[in-house]
Amino acid sequence: MSIHPTLATLAALALGALPLTALATDDLDGRYDVGGRSIHLKCEGTGAPVVVIDAGLGTAPAGDPGWLGIAGKIAPVTRVCLYDRAGLGGSDPAPSRPRTSKDAATDLHAALKAAHVDGPYLLVGHSIGGLHAQVFASLYPDDTAGLVLVSSTHPDQSKAWLAALGPAKAGEEKAATEARTFIGTVQTNPAKNEEGLDIVQSAAQARQLHTLGAKPVIVATHSPRFRMVPGLSEPMSIKLEGETQRLQKQFLSLSTNAHQNIAATAGHGLPHEDPAFVVANILQGVAAVRGIAAPAEPKATSGASTPRPSYDACLQQANTTADMVGCANDEYAFQDKRLNDVYKKLMSTLPEAEKTTLRAEERQWVDGKTRRCKPPRDGGTLAVVEASGCAVEETAKRAAVLEKRLPKASQ
C-alpha cells in the first residue's frame, strides 16, 4: 500500500519505454455502431496500452471536465479513450432495460473494434465503472492488459453494507434506516437508478473474474476518513467504511501484480476531488503493463507534505472515534516534532532579519491552522475526528514548506 506516487516520476518511467514517434497524436471523437445503436468514444494520444475510462453511475466521461482533465494528462504518455455508456452523453440509449455490466462491457468492446482502436486495453473504472471493467476483463481476457480500479464498486459491496448495518430496529437512527433503504432499493432495483442498471446481476457477472494472472491491477482507494452515509453515527460510519476498505483490499487477490494506493483525504469522488491521484494511479498501471518498475512507496522524510502511510493504515484499523483520534494524535506528535526541528534549524542558521520574518510567518500560520481546524461546537464526534486530521495535514504541509528552505547540507 502507498500514498500516490509522484506524477513526474511515473510519467518519466512510462515515456522512457516509448520511441519519440509514439508521442504523435491520433485523436478521434465520434459515434460508432454497435448493432444499430451508436456509442460515443473520444480518444487522444498514441501508444500502448490503450487506457480506456469507464466512469461512475450517470457520468459521461467524454464530456466531463474532471475526466477530460485526467485524459489530458495521460495522452502525452499513451493513448487514452473516454467511453460514454448507452444513454449517456453522446451515446444512444439502449433498446431495453434493465441493463447489466455485461451489456456495458460488450457495448464498449464493440465500439472500440468499430473505431479500430486495437487492444490490449488498460481499463480504468470508477465506482460502478469499476464493476463494468471487471466484467470486461472476464469476457475479453486477451484484450485486457490490466485494471485500474478507482474507488470501485466491489461485487459483494451491497451485501457487506447490509450486514454491517444489521437488521432494522425500533428507534434506530434515521440515517441507518435511509441507508438500508437506499441499498435495498436504489442499488438493487433497476427502476430506481438513473441508468436502469441491475446491480445485483452485474455483481454476479463480476464474480466470474477470478484472476488476471500477473497482469497489473492498481487499486486506487478513497480515504478511510470518507463517510458514505451523511448523518450516520460515527461508530456505525466507521464500521461501514471498514467494510468498504476491507473489500477494496480484496481486489489485490485478482493478480500477483496488484498494488493499492490510498488517497490521503479525498472521498469516493476521486476524479473530481483528487484528479492528480487518479492520474498517478493510471500512469502506475501504464508503467506496470510496459514492464517498468514503479517507484517505491514514498517515505515521510524531508519534503513530504502528507502524513505518513502508517497514519492511514492506523485509521483503517480504527474501530471507534477514540481510535481515530488516537491515530491522529500519534501522527500529530510526529509531524509537530518534525516541524519544530526544522524551525529550530532555520532559526539557528538564518540572518536576524529573516528570523524576524519567520517568527511572524509562524504566528500567522498557527492562527490560520487554528481557524481552519477548529471543530464546530455542535459538530459531534465526527467533527473532532476531522479537526484532528486537519491539524495533522496542516502541520505536515507546513513542515514540508520549511524543509525546502533548509540548506541541502542541513536536510
Helix content: 40-55%
Spell out the CATH superfamily of the largest domain. Answer: Alpha/Beta hydrolase fold, catalytic domain
Largest sheet: 8 strands, mixed
How many helical elements? 14
**Poorly predicted spans:** 1-6, 17-25, 294-302
Q: Identify the strand order in the major beta sheet.
A: 1-2-4-3-5-6-7-8
Per CATH, the class of the largest domain reads: Alpha Beta
Rg from alpha-carbon coordinates: 23 Å
**Corresponding CATH architecture of the largest domain:** 3-Layer(aba) Sandwich
Give the SSE string.
Answer: HEEEHEHEHEHHHEHEHHHHHH
Roughly what fraction of the amino acids lie in strands? Answer: 5-15%
Number of strands: 8
> Which structural class do you get from the secondary structure elements?
alpha/beta
Give the mean pLDDT.
83
Form type: globular
Termini separation comes to 27 Å
CATH topology type of the largest domain: Rossmann fold
- When the domains are counted, the total is 2
